[in-house]
Specification:
It is built from 3 helices and 11 strands, in the order ββαββββββαβββα. By secondary structure, the protein is an alpha+beta fold. A hairpin with a 4-residue loop joins strand 10 and strand 11. The two termini are about 30 Å apart.
């Protein structure tokens, strides 16, 4: 895969500053992306992050991931989810247009120019968010509690994804922060904190 632009698009999104890179949305790439992320199931959180709602769900175990009629199923045994990432042949042409992932982003939330949250987001053909995968944070434990000192090894998945899907090497911006900042405000740090809700 060709290298992406070293700097992503800067956006004021959901009340904070984000740096965003676009990912391919073909079925094979998205399925591989799921497999890459869910190999580290114990360190990620998943769910939609939309205005007024943040679902930050810790996977209970490594899932089985399979594909049927354009839908990826991520099955944790006691619960699962389906997400349309390819051609869904059993639907009308209109639904075939809007159901599959139409936009995929890898992004980092920035606080004073330093990485603060690292994630992947998928959107369907209507621009509705399908899923956010919150990647491990050096500032937070797996149960989302503040770390006394940043653990930079928790950026390994982010670094691997950037290299594999964007052709980009680790970036000092990701290791420039000192503490997790909730909601983009240094005064809003909390002992138990979520993603960018």
């Amino acid at each position: 895969m060709a290298a992406a632009a070293e700097r992503g698009e800067i956006r004021d999104s959901y009340g904070s500053t984000e740096e965003v890179w676009q990912l391919p949305v073909d079925q094979d790439t998205l399925l591989e992306l799921f497999r890459d992320c869910f190999q580290e199931w114990e360190h990620i959180n998943i769910g939609p992050l939309i205005q007024g709602a943040a679902w930050e769900i810790r996977p209970p175990r490594e899932p089985k991931i399979y594909l049927y009629d354009g839908y990826a199923t991520v099955n944790f045994e006691d619960w699962h989810f389906h997400i349309c990432i390819g051609e869904h042949k059993q639907a009308s042409p209109e639904l075939q247009r809007i159901r599959p992932t139409a936009k995929a982003e890898i992004y980092r939330d920035l606080n004073d120019g330093a990485g603060n949250v690292w994630a992947i987001r998928l959107f369907n053909g209507l621009g509705e968010q399908q899923l956010t995968i919150l990647l491990p944070s050096p500032f937070l434990t797996d149960d989302q509690r503040s770390q006394p000192e940043p653990d930079w090894s928790r950026l390994d998945l982010w670094d691997r994804l950037r290299k594999k899907y964007l052709g980009l090497d680790p970036d000092p911006i990701d290791r420039a922060g000192k503490v997790f900042v909730h909601g983009g405000s240094p005064n809003a740090t909390t002992e138990k904190a979520g993603g960018s809700s």
